Amino acid sequence: MAAISSLLIVYTISKTPSLRTPSNILILALAISDLGGSIFSQSLYCALSISTFKAIMNNSTFLAKSKTFCQPVRIYFRILSYDNHYYSYLHGLIVFNSIMAFVAGVNNVLVICTIARTPSLRKPANILILGLALSDLGSSLLAQPSYCFFLFADIQHDVHRFCQSGKVYAWSVWMFTPVSFATLISVTADRFLAVELHLRYQELVTTKRYGIVLILIWAIGLVISVSTIIFVFKTFPLVITGSVIIGTLICANSFFLFKISRVIRRHSLQIQAQQQSVQQSIDMPRYKKSVNTMYYVIGVFLFCYIPLIITMVVHSIFRKDTKVTRYMYTFSESLALANGVLNPVLYFWRIEELRKAAYNLLKKMWKCDTESV
């Protein structure tokens, strides 16, 4: 019922021009949030509740089974004697992640609406930005709220709810992080194709084809997320498969970045020698700006995720659970989730056309709202 009602609200507002006012846009955002919660959170909650009931009924106590039941999120839960300072720290993280989730949701909805409602922005490169915004929006609607419940359950020592929220958090992270990573590599590949194909770029690279690429990326993300459920007790195959996929993507991204840097360096040398550029089909200043924007997005992604990767590597090497480990995990996870807040800021800062279109869209909605009053 919640999914049907929320979907009806989203469809009604999107199809009725007179309802596209600032106040109704907030209602639209809430409806999208409720829709995501009804599709993902409630479904997972029901599945987890059934699993919990079965665990209790299998002639053993729940606490005896809790370690196995919590296996997908065991790296986050450590039975240690925490002090009040740590609990205050967790409360602060809950507030921080709640604010970040709201800001990320609003900003990414603005990016999505701006690209969707501005015909001049419906270019292949912007379709990839739209894909990143959708991934960040999904993270703000599912991963960050479930992580807040996860931390709150840790404070309350509620193992049952800790397992439920932890699994939702883990599965959503396995869903949206690979999608963001793969889409980011697609952005790099797009900049590579722009210099490699020259005049054929506009002919071969189309919005429709990039839309198909995004669908494939999301399908792969869904498969990875579902695999964490199917192979919940078989982490080794997941680690091997994940390592191979990530290694391949990193190698591909490094190749694209190397080729792009060579083109830009060659162009700079040609300018210094006062020679005519061989890349006449490319607006090089505009291309350089788009490449620099890509570097910023990649840099922010690495800034947000490298601390978590370092924490996981250090913990896997020493395999020692301490208060420092918990501080490192909770901080690095919160920083990784904050990536969805920073990306829209970069888009509006670096892409002038997107910034102006968003401003015009907000101004138009404000005008409609004042006229309706």
From TrEMBL:
Subcellular compartments: Cell membrane
Gene3D superfamilies: Rhodopsin 7-helix transmembrane proteins
Pfam families reported in the protein's UniProt record: 7tm_1
GO cellular component, one term: plasma membrane
CDD domains: 7tm_classA_rhodopsin-like (cd00637)
Transmembrane feature ranges: 89-115, 127-153, 168-189, 210-233, 239-258, 294-315, 327-349
Keywords linked to the UniProt accession: Cell membrane, G-protein coupled receptor, Membrane, Receptor, Transducer, Transmembrane, Transmembrane helix
Glycoprotein is among the record's keywords: no
Bilayer topology annotation: Multi-pass membrane protein
G-protein coupled receptors family 1 profile domain ranges (all copies): 5-35, 107-347
MF annotations from Gene Ontology: G protein-coupled receptor activity
Family: Belongs to the G-protein coupled receptor 1 family.
Name listed for the protein in its UniProt record: Adrenocorticotropic hormone receptor-like
Organism, as annotated: Actinia tenebrosa (Australian red waratah sea anemone)
Phylogenetic classification of the source organism: Eukaryota, Metazoa, Cnidaria, Anthozoa, Hexacorallia
